[in-house]
Amino acid sequence: MVNKKGEVQCIDDEILEKMNLKTRYNFLNNNLMSILKPRNFNFLRKVEKFFIRFEEKNNITHNEDCYEWIPAIGEEGLVTRINNFTELDLNFEPYGMTAEFMRCLATDFFDPQLTMAMGASILVVNPIMLHHEDIDVRLKALRELVTGKKIGCVCITEPERGSDAVHMLTTCDENEDGSFTLNGEKIYQTNGPKADWAVLYAAKEANNGNTMAQFLIDTSWDGWEVERLNIPWTPRVHIGKETLTNVRVPKEYVLGGPGLGREHLFEGLNLERLGIVILNVSEAWNAISHAAIYVNMRKQFDKEVLKYQGVGFPLAEMWSKTMSLTLATLHICQIIDEKMEQFGTLPKNFNLALVVTASQLKSQSASLTERVCYGCANLMGGAGLCDNTLMQDLLGISRIHQVGGGTDQIQKYIMSLALRQLFKML
Ligand SMILES: Cc1cc2nc3c(=O)[nH]c(=O)nc-3n(C[C@H](O)[C@H](O)[C@H](O)COP(=O)(O)OP(=O)(O)OC[C@H]3O[C@@H](n4cnc5c(N)ncnc54)[C@H](O)[C@@H]3O)c2cc1C
Fold first, then answer.
1. H or E, element range at 113
2. Topology of domain 152-259, CATH
């Protein structure tokens, strides 16, 4: 029998039906209702309701081009909730890191690859938010990204400069009228081939981090070329390799001139890494919700397989690790929200301390999601490996988070430097 997606059905009707979005949301809600504040729990449920209706109404199979859904999601104010956008006359409530965590959890249960793609668009929102200086073209880009009308990508990585991101080879030369001319190559940009707007870093002098600058780029400009590269683990996310040949960037689009680029790059990294932490925790819950339903219903040797210790105990172990990391993530989100409410921005010292916390959580959550998604699929036997559920998406996507956003080695390098600093303070 072939289902509406054209896949051969491997999973029993009743179990497959029980792993639907609504029931998986119920599993998540029962886990989180006692630890979330009512305001956050209510928002989580509101986003869940939106996606249940969205999936039903559009008869979604999760094989579609997920980018086509983003405008409708943006109309509901569900592309990002990190910031307060009242200056754009957009009154999205609630907002902040905790609200973003809730938005991401609900979105990930609906479609993990969509969640990753929207996450990369958000990375473009934050730098423009910090540096728009009320300039019309920047506000226009910001509004289009926040409302999901347009897609964004961030261009840091180059073919020859990955982890060593501050020694860029892409150059920017200033022209007499204050515009810049950009030349070089970028690679592995999430959303690159779909992006309307890009935030890109280049250096006045190649290899010199002190001369880095930050630009907002309209990807329809002459000299911008993009090829889609293939990351087989996330087949519906478009990832690009960009070539810039004499791309002229007018003055109004320079978010930070030469000398400011490196600072602007690092100012966004904490939130980028915490965004990946939220994504990782959401994927782990999504996998656990599938597995918990499946092993409670699947019988072998006349017993539900959960009742065998070989299945129940490892699932309990993954569940407790996921819950522990959820509590840690919630805690840091709430501290960030409190600071933002108190000071309107994150104090410099706090942001500095957050560098290590973000690396610690990014490292732990990336390895957690990879282990949990694989472990849950494994406990589901063939049902976890076939294409009838989102488990295949989760298996693939959970394998890339140790690389994107700075590799695991780089996170550990940051932590080891911090251990040295802490020792020197004794
Ligand atoms: C799916 C995906 C999406 C991505 N999205 C984006 C995006 O949107 N925008 C963007 O700009 N980039 C993006 N990236 C790029 C990503 O940030 C880089 O891949 C990453 O920073 C590593 O760079 P690299 O691949 O060149 O590896 P390299 O830097 O060449 O690293 C190779 C190996 O060496 C190790 N290594 C390097 N330096 C050190 C060191 N000092 N100490 C110890 N080990 C070290 C690394 O950990 C790794 O194991 C994405 C990547 C992927 C895979």
1. helix 112-131
2. Butyryl-CoA Dehydrogenase, subunit A; domain 2 (2.40.110)
